[in-house]
Automatic annotation (TrEMBL):
<feature type="region of interest" description="Disordered">
    <location>
        <begin position="458"/>
        <end position="477"/>
    </location>
</feature>
<dbReference type="Pfam" id="PF24016">
    <property type="entry name" value="DUF7330"/>
</dbReference>
<dbReference type="InterPro" id="IPR055754">
    <property type="entry name" value="DUF7330"/>
</dbReference>
<keyword id="KW-0812">Transmembrane</keyword>
<keyword id="KW-1133">Transmembrane helix</keyword>
<feature type="domain" description="DUF7330">
    <location>
        <begin position="330"/>
        <end position="491"/>
    </location>
</feature>
<feature type="compositionally biased region" description="Basic residues">
    <location>
        <begin position="82"/>
        <end position="91"/>
    </location>
</feature>
<feature type="region of interest" description="Disordered">
    <location>
        <begin position="80"/>
        <end position="101"/>
    </location>
</feature>
<keyword id="KW-0472">Membrane</keyword>
<feature type="transmembrane region" description="Helical">
    <location>
        <begin position="53"/>
        <end position="71"/>
    </location>
</feature>
<protein>
    <recommendedName>
        <fullName>DUF7330 domain-containing protein</fullName>
    </recommendedName>
</protein>
Amino acid sequence: MTEKGAISIPIEERQPLLGDNVHDQRPARGCTRGIFCKRCVVGTHADSKKRFFLRRMIAGMLIVWIYYAIFGYRHSELDRHGGKHHHHHHHDHEGGHGHNNKCVRKDLVPWERGPSKFGTSAENISLRFGNGNMFSKVDVVSSGDVMSPMVLVNANVTKARRHCHHHDGHDDGVKDTVSTKQTQHLGLHIDVDEQDDEFSMTIWADDHLEPDHGRDHPDDPDNEHHRCSFCAGLEVVILLPESFTTFGRLFVEGVVMEFQARDLGRITFDTFSVSTTVGAILLQSDLVIATEIFAHSTTGTVEIASVTAPAGKPLKVKVTTTVGAIDVNAVLPRVVADAEDQSHEIDLSTVTGLVQIDVKAADEDILLTKKGAATVPGDAQIRASSDVGQIITTISLADDQLLFLNSKSTTGQIDTTVDDKFLGNIRVQTDMSRVDVFEAEDSKSEIEYEKNSKQLKVGHKHLKDNGDDSSDENDSDIVLRSGFGQVALTFV
C-alpha cells in the first residue's frame, strides 16, 4: 500500500538503499588498476601505495642491518687501514695499508717461529704498530712474577699456502731471533732497539707473503702471488714489576683494537701516552698515577676510571676522540706551594661522542705534611668540548681553589654541577634553546646578574656578607655554551 502521489520503485536483491553512503564502499580486495580505477574511492590507492613503499623501505633497512650485524663485524677489524707509515730503524717498508676482505681470524694460525718474549731494564717503553694488515690488543699490568719490565707478544698469522710461500733455501724449522733479518717469509716483523734508557719496539707486517710482492712473475701467469694477502692478530702484554714505585714513559701508538691498563699498583708514571686509530682505550686500574696522561682514539672510546698525579705535582690530562665517548674521573692532588707550575689541566675533546668528567680535590698528603712542605690546592683548568655529543661535568673543589671551566658544544646538551665553594664569574649561553642556573640551598653566596634571559645568563657569584666585588683579578670563571642544546649549571 502506497500513499497517494507516491512513486513505487522496485528494489532488486543486494541493491544498496538510497540513504546509504555508497561512496564509502571500497572495491573488492585484489584491484590492480591503481589510480586509473574509476570504481575505487579517491585517495585509497595513494594511501595504500604509501603504506606499500613504507613496508618495503623498513624491510630493506632491516635486511641491510642484519647483513652488517652478522658479516660486517667479522671484517671490520681487518678492513681498516694500518695507520701511519713509520720509518723505523733504517727500514723503509714498501707497500700500502693492508686491506683484504678474505683475511679473517679463522684463517690464522699461531706464529710459532717468531720471538715472543722481550726483557728490558729500561725505564721507558715505546710500542708502535706500523704498516700492514693487523689487529691487536695491548694490556699493561703489574706482576709479582717479573723482576724487570717484560713485553710478551702472542701472534696468529695467515697460513702460508704452497703457491705463495717463499722458498729461500733455509730451514724454517729454526726459531728466529730478534737479530734475524731474513724473516720476510714469515710476513710479520718485530724491530727492537734499546738505547738511552728506552726500549723501543715496532711491529709491522707485509701486505703479502711473497717478499717481492707487487712484481710480475714470468713463471706465474695467473699472478697467484698477488692473491696471498697477509694479516696478523696480536696480543701484546707489557708486564711491570709489582715492586716498582716509579716508571718513566709508556708510549703506545698504532692500530690497536683495545688498550687496557689494569692492576698497576702504586707505580707512578712520568708520562702515560696511548694513541689508537681504531680501538678503545681503557684505563681500568683502581688508580693510575701519572704526571701527564695523553690518550687519543679515532673511533674508539676512552675511559679512565681514576687518575691522579704524584703528591705535590699538578695533574695534566689530554684526551681526544673523533667518534668515541670520553669518561674521565680525576683526583687533583695538592701542589707544593713553591712549585713553578701549580695548575691542574684537563682537556677533553670529541667530535660526536659524549663527554663525562668527574673531578675531585684530594685531601692533604700525609707524607708531605710530615716533611713540613707547604701545599696549595692548585688551580683547576678544565676544558671540555663536543660538536654533537652531550657534556656532563661534576666538580668538587677544595677551599680557596680556583676553577676555570670552559665547556662548549654545537648541538649537544651541557649539564654542569659545581661545588658551592666556587666564587667568581659565570656565563651560561645557548643560541637556540634555554639556560638554567640553580643556586645551592642555604648557600653562603649569591649571584648578581648583569644579564638574565632565557638564553643568556651573565653574573658574578660572591659571598653574601662581602658584597659584590667583581674586580678581583683572581676570580674563577665558568663559561658554558651550546649552539642548539640546553645548558644547565647547578651549584651544590
